[in-house]
Specification:
73 residues; mainly alpha; 26% helix
Length: 73
Amino acid sequence: MKIQRRRKLGRGVAVVGAGMSKFGMFKDRDSNDLFVEAYREMVSSVNRGIDPTDIDALYLGNFSNDFFMHQAH
């Protein structure tokens, strides 16, 4: 019988906040504006505040932005 070992992460990982922009058509706003909206919501969702210099990574997801910003291949 093979015993599986659990792998340990090299360092601690934490998700401390999340944000999302509103859904809809915004003729006066582009994807950068929507990112800023989501970022601000993420910062305000943290209970004790966050220093932006402490953020190691941000993960962004979107759908079809490349078509709307004329960047599709």
